[in-house]
Design brief:
Rossmann fold
Length: 182
């Protein structure tokens, strides 16, 4: 299958999402970056501004998300919209790739954690590159399992993650794309 047949779904934000987008562009893949009016992102390619109606269709309780992730969210209105765009990203991909930190409770740190949790809820093929643990993990049967070298096999995949991309996270994404798109 040609590279043009693949589409990355992301949010175009600084860090991991911007790196996913740069690599998708380099390898000739399609790219869709979900955002909302007034939200600043780094990627300009494939921007898809969600309408108020589209955002509302993905409304989620901040109380529920806070309990699920064992954390509090402060700026409720903006955070709600971010979580709604993340749900569009996850829903659009069959494989989900995340860069972040897997915490002791099995959640992923920060807002990125909602994407990983929603992928679990939707029973998506979920991979996380843990920057602290310096390795890839796959969510299987309710737990994180070490994986050596995942490959993007789905034509619709999601790439998201931390705004604070470390050198090992950047390298992991470069190697993921190189393995997947020769």
């Amino acid at each position: 299958m040609s590279n043009e047949s693949y589409t990355l779904f992301s949010g175009g934000a600084q860090g991991a999402e911007a790196q996913f987008g740069k690599l998708a562009e380099y390898y000739g893949l399609g790219e869709v970056n979900y955002t909302f009016e007034g939200h600043r992102i780094e990627r300009e390619r494939g921007v898809r501004v969600l309408t108020t109606e589209e955002l509302t269709k993905k409304d989620v309780s901040l109380t529920y998300v806070s309990k699920l992730l064992n954390r509090r969210f402060t700026n409720a209105e903006k955070m709600r919209k971010v979580l709604q765009t993340v749900m569009h990203q996850i829903e659009s991909g069959d494989q989900i790739f995340v860069v972040g930190t897997i915490q002791e409770d099995g959640t992923v740190k920060g807002g990125t954690g909602w994407g990983a949790e929603f992928a679990k809820i939707c029973n998506k093929d979920l991979f996380v590159f843990g920057q602290v643990k310096d390795g890839w993990f796959k969510w299987e049967k309710g737990q994180w399992v070490d994986v050596e070298a995942p490959v993007i096999t789905s034509t619709h995949f999601t790439g998201t993650g931390t705004r604070f991309l470390e050198d090992n996270g950047k390298k992991a994404l470069e190697e993921l794309f190189a393995r997947s798109f020769k």
